[in-house]
Every structure is written in structure tokens, then in C-alpha cells.
Amino acid sequence: MTDPRWLLTGQQREAQGMGPWTQMDDLAFGLLTDGHVSTPKVHRAGCYICADPEFAQMGLPLCYRCPACGGHVAADDTVCDDCGHEAEEPPA
């Protein structure tokens, strides 16, 4: 088998004697079904975190408002996209 099992289609899995998908095949799937949800505080068009609802469904940290101007700070950054303010750390 050359392809990782998560890249195989259902038919390919069946042909290789694998059973149906399970949570162990896709560990991130458990994050989508465990009931934890994050609530967005700010939204910016074009931001990959804001645009993907699975970040909130998985309960991951989301983008937040800049403490200096109220603008957009990406969840994976500390610099405001609007004013350039360097936030110390995301709010709790």
C-alpha cells in the first residue's frame, strides 16, 4: 500500500480489505463530534480561520479583537491586521 489510509476512497479501502471509516482513521473527527464549540468574536473576509466553520466546531481558538483598535487578530498570530498592534497573548 503506497497511499496513506486517510487518502483512500471507500472503494479502495474495501479492495484492500479495510473496513469502514472509524474515528481512529481520522483523529480530528473526534473534535468535530465532542460537543465543544468556540464562539467567534470577530470576522474578517479572506481569513482562513474565520472562513472555516470547523475551527469553531472543534473548539479551537478563534480570531479575536485587537485590544488597541478592536480590529482583527488572527488566532495563529499576535499582530492586528488593522493597526499592526502587537498583542501580548490572546484573551482567555
Describe the model.
This protein has one domain (27-92). It has helices spanning 10-15, 29-33, 48-51, 53-57, and strands spanning 64-65, 72-73. Strand 1 and strand 2 (72-73) form a beta hairpin. The protein is mainly alpha-helical and 92 residues long. It contains four helices and two strands; from the N terminus they run ααααββ. 22% of the residues lie in helices and 4% in strands. The relative contact order is 0.13. The model has no long low-confidence stretch (mean pLDDT 79).
- Straight-line N-to-C gap: 44 Å
The low-pLDDT segments are none
Question: How many strands in all?
Answer: 2
| Residues in helix, % | 10-25%
Question: What is the arithmetic mean of pLDDT?
Answer: 79
Q: Describe the largest sheet.
A: 2 strands, antiparallel
Oligomer: single chain
Structure classification: mainly alpha
Spatial order of strands in the largest sheet: 1-2
How many discrete structural domains?
1
Strand content: under 5%
Radius of gyration: 18 Å
Topology at a glance:
Layout: H1 10-15, H2 29-33, H3 48-51, H4 53-57, E1 64-65, E2 72-73
Antiparallel strand pairs: 1-2
List its salient traits:
single chain; 92 residues; mainly alpha; two-stranded antiparallel sheet; 4 helices
Give the gist of this structure.
With 92 residues, the protein is mostly helical.
